[in-house]
Write a structure and sequence with these properties.
Elements (H helix, E strand, L loop, with lengths): L15 E6 L9 E5 L8 E4 L9 E4 L9 E4 L9
Antiparallel strand pairs: 1-2, 2-3, 3-4, 4-5
Organism: Catenuloplanes indicus
Protein name: Membrane-bound lytic murein transglycosylase B
InterPro entries: TSP_type-3_rpt
Length: about 80
C-alpha cells in the first residue's frame, strides 16, 4: 500500500503540462514542467529520479523567480497528466 503524500500549494488549481521529457531513453517521461495558474510560465517541476515512471521529487516556484519555494518527496498531490 502506498502512503498518502503531502499536498503542496501551487499558484493555481489547473495543470497544463508544458514539458514532459524522457531523459534516460526508456520511453517514459521522467521530467515534468507545468503551469498551474494559466499564465504560461512554469511553476511546478517534477522528477522521476529512480526511473520507475512515478514522480519522486516535486518543486514549486510560487513567485516564479527561478528558485523553488517548496520541495517535497513524491508528486505533492499533483500527478502528471502525461
Amino acid at each position: 500500500m502506498t502512503e498518502p503524500q503531502e499536498t503542496v500549494e501551487t499558484r493555481g488549481d489547473d495543470r497544463v503540462d508544458l514539458l514532459a521529457a524522457d531523459t534516460d531513453g526508456d520511453g517514459r517521461p521522467d521530467v515534468w514542467v507545468a503551469d498551474t495558474d494559466g499564465d504560461g510560465k512554469a511553476d511546478l517541476f517534477q522528477f522521476d529520479t529512480d526511473h520507475d515512471g512515478k514522480v519522486d521529487i516535486t518543486m514549486v516556484d510560487l513567485d516564479e523567480d527561478g528558485t523553488p519555494d517548496t520541495v517535497v518527496d513524491g508528486d505533492g498531490g499533483h500527478p502528471p497528466t502525461v
